[in-house]
Write a structure and sequence with these properties.
By secondary structure, the chain is an alpha/beta fold. Helices cover 32% and strands 15% of the residues. It has a six-stranded parallel β-sheet, sandwiched between helices. Strands 1-2 form a two-stranded antiparallel ribbon. A two-stranded antiparallel ribbon has the order 7-8. This is Alpha/beta fold hydrolase.
């Protein structure tokens, strides 16, 4: 690209292409990991953009499992305290911050969070807004109006959500929200599919559920995240709604958007709607990547 001549005749360096100098930092949701984004990352690469996916503490292929999770009869699955019980929201935000600091030197940074990942991503942005040029919530928790994800999960607007029957045991006693992606019960597995992946091909869904971790550290949905207008609120933000989301219905997505905009009105959400379920990275990663670069 050639330099640009200004009206005064001086030569100025060309502007960087926004896409080729943008890095997407991708934060997964509950029970997933950085692997969740692999197909979307391939699509982003094809569109000329770089990306890096974060593994939050207690997630990904290194996540510790309950001791009986892979044993016949699943001993202790309902009662064994999670080894993730001591993981904090600060720990999760620190993992996001570490990645943001590493990639900042490469140019514009867009932080993308899915579902429960909205809490750690928001706290990271609040801690270091200078590291983020835009934050994108993909059907994700926004603590702008209410500080805990549980505050929205328990709201009347979320009454139509599916998946409550997937939770095992007492989260307070376990220190985690536990599910059983390897359950031998066909009805349980069908509820998992209908909740999160109803538009993902059946053969692909079986691969996805086998990679899920059973434990979400309780701190992720239960810890208050306090945001300020001066820090988080100064970052341009986008919400990607999932139109047929059964895990986090559009009514509660819209509630989070509206309450955040009321709390921080100077930088309101840009809102776009995607077709399909809570998991577009599984069902239509190319469309998701195209939405992100737009």
């Amino acid at each position: 690209m050639l330099p640009v001549r200004t009206e005064m005749g001086a030569m100025t360096p060309p502007l960087k292409n926004d896409l080729t100098h943008t890095v997407f930092v991708l934060v997964h949701g509950a029970w997933h990991g950085s692997w969740q984004w692999a197909a979307t990352q391939r699509a982003l690469t094809g569109l000329g953009s770089a990306s890096v996916a974060v593994d939050l503490p207690g997630h990904g292929f290194d996540a510790p499992l309950p001791t009986g999770y892979l044993l016949p009869g699943r001993p202790g699955l309902l009662t064994e305290k999670s080894r993730l019980a001591e993981v904090t929201m600060e720990d999760c935000a620190a993992a996001v911050l570490d990645t943001l600091r590493r990639v900042r030197r490469y140019g514009r940074v867009v932080l993308v969070a899915h579902s429960a990942g909205g809490g750690p991503a928001s706290l990271a942005a609040e801690r270091a807004p200078e590291l983020v040029d835009r934050i994108v919530y993909l059907s994700a928790f926004v603590p702008g109006g209410r500080p805990r994800f549980f505050d929205y999960l328990g709201a009347p607007e979320n009454a139509a959500a599916r998946g409550r029957s997937l939770n095992l045991g007492d989260p307070e006693a376990l220190g985690a929200v536990r599910i059983d992606p390897l359950s031998p019960d066909p009805a349980y597995i069908e509820e998992l599919r209908q909740t999160h992946y109803h538009d993902t091909p059946a053969d692909r869904f079986d691969r996805w559920r086998s990679a899920l971790s059973p434990d979400l550290p309780l701190a992720v949905p239960a810890t208050p995240v306090v945001l300020t207008a001066a820090r988080w609120g100064r970052i341009p933000r986008t919400f990607l709604r999932c139109a047929e989301d059964r895990a986090l219905p559009t009514a509660v997505q819209d509630l989070m958007i509206a309450e955040a905009d009321r709390a921080v009105p100077d930088e309101p959400f840009t809102v776009h709607t995607l077709p399909g379920s809570h998991s577009p990275f599984a069902a239509r990663p190319q469309e998701l990547a195209e939405a992100l670069v737009r």
